[in-house]
Amino acid sequence: MKILCETQLVNRVTQANRTPRAVKSTLAIGYKQRASDANGNTKKELEMVLFTPQNKAGTRYKVHDNIHCVHTKFVLDGKATIGFKQPTENLLIKCDPIQLKGFLQTLKLGMEGKDAINLRLNIAAATAIPQKAQPQQRMTITKRSEYPIKGFPRTLKSLTITNIQLMKLSFEVCSLRNLTVLDVSGNKLTKIPPELGRLSLTSLTLSGNALGEDKDWRWMSGSKLNASLCDLDLSANGLSYFPPLLVKCERLVTLNLNHNRLRHLPFSIRRLQKLRSLHVSSNKLESLPAAIEDLHIDVLDVWGNCFQGFNAEAAQSHVRRVPAAHMPSPLWLQAARAVSSYKISYSATTLPAVLIQLISESPKCLCGKLCYALSPEDLLQRVIQPKFTNIKNLTYSREHQIYSDVVLCGPKCCAYQQLRSLFNIMFP
Ligand SMILES: [Zn+2]
C-alpha cells in the first residue's frame, strides 16, 4: 500500500532539527521477498519505505520488532506518528484521514503477521507516487491548429492568441477567472463581449483588430476590469472616436491608441489619474484637451497627427453637450464644484457614483472651476503649443504645432483675461 502524505522526521535521541519542515512524501508498506532458506521456505520481511523529494530512492525501515510506538490519537484529523527503534526516529505523518487510517490498519495487520491485500505490494520495487504536475498557467496560440478543441485549462493566468484570424472572443475565454494577462492581437475581432469586464485582467492587448466598428464598450465598465486593468493596447483598430467608457478604467498606467483615426481626446481623460504613458501617434488629432495637464504623464507620444488651429464649429461639436433633461440638478453640480474647489478627498465609498463622475469627468476651466458639459456661458478656446509642464517625455512632429483645447467658465474668469492678453488674436 502506498499513500501520498506530508512527513516530518525527528530523531528522538539527537533532537537535532526539532521542528523539521514538512515535505510531500510517499509512504509505502509491503513485504520484501527473501531468498529461500536451507529448508526451502521463502522468508518474507515487512518493510516501510519513505520517499521524499530529497531522497527519491527512499529510506527503508524494518517493521518487525522495530516499531517503538504508534500515536493515533489525532488520526481523525489526518495526523499520526510512527516511532522506529532503529534508527531512533519519529515519523510524523499528515494526510487524508481515511487513507491514513487504512495505512495504520495495514501496518497493524502486518505487525500481527497476517496477510492482507494491501500488503501485496512488492516493496523492493516500490516507487514514489508521481506528484501532480503544476497546473498550466500560460498558453500561447499562434496557429489555428493549436486552438484547444477540448477547451482551455481553468487554471490559465496568461493567454495569448495571436494572428489566427479569430473572429470572436468566446464566452469560455471570458470566464477564465484566473486570467490576468490576455493578448488577442492581430485577429479579426469586431466586438468584445461585456462578460470580459468580469475578469480581473491587468494587461489586455487588442491591437490589430477591427474594434472601431463596435459601438458596444460595456466591457470597459465591468467592475472587476475597472479595478485591475493597468495596460491596455487598442492600437490599429480603426477607432474614429475615444470610447467614452474607457475613462472608467481608472487604474490604467499605459494606454496605447496608436494608428487609429481619433480626432479628439475627451476632457474626461483627466479621470485617468494613474496614467503615465499615453500613445496616440498616427491618428488625426487636431488638438489635445488641456485636461492632459491635470494628469501626471511621463511619456506622451503624439507624433503624426493633424494639429490645427481653431475651428469653432468643429471644436464645439466634439464636446458632449447634454440635453437639458439629462442635466444633473444644480445641487449635484454645486456639490461637485465644492468638492473640486476645496480639494476634498473622496472615494467610491464616500460619494455617490454620479457625483464622482461629475467631479472626475467634467471639463474644468483653467481657473479650476468645473464646467459641466459646457453650459451656454462656457467658452471653448484653442491655444497653440501650451506648456505641458507635467509631461516628462513628449514626442511630436516638429513641423507641426501642438494645439490644445481649453475650457473657460466665462468672459469674467481671471484665466480668460490672462489668456486674452497672451493670445490677443484668437480671443475676440
Ligand atoms: Zn474660470
UniProtKB/TrEMBL annotation:
InterPro entries: Leu-rich_rpt, Leu-rich_rpt_typical-subtyp, LRR_dom_sf, LRR_domain-containing, PIF1/LRR1_PH
Keywords: Leucine-rich repeat, Nucleus, Repeat
Chain segments annotated as coiled-coil in the UniProt record: none
Matches recorded under PROSITE patterns: LRR
A Pfam family the protein falls into: PH_LRR1
Every PIF1/LRR1 pleckstrin homology domain range: 1-121
Identification of the protein by name: Leucine-rich repeat protein 1
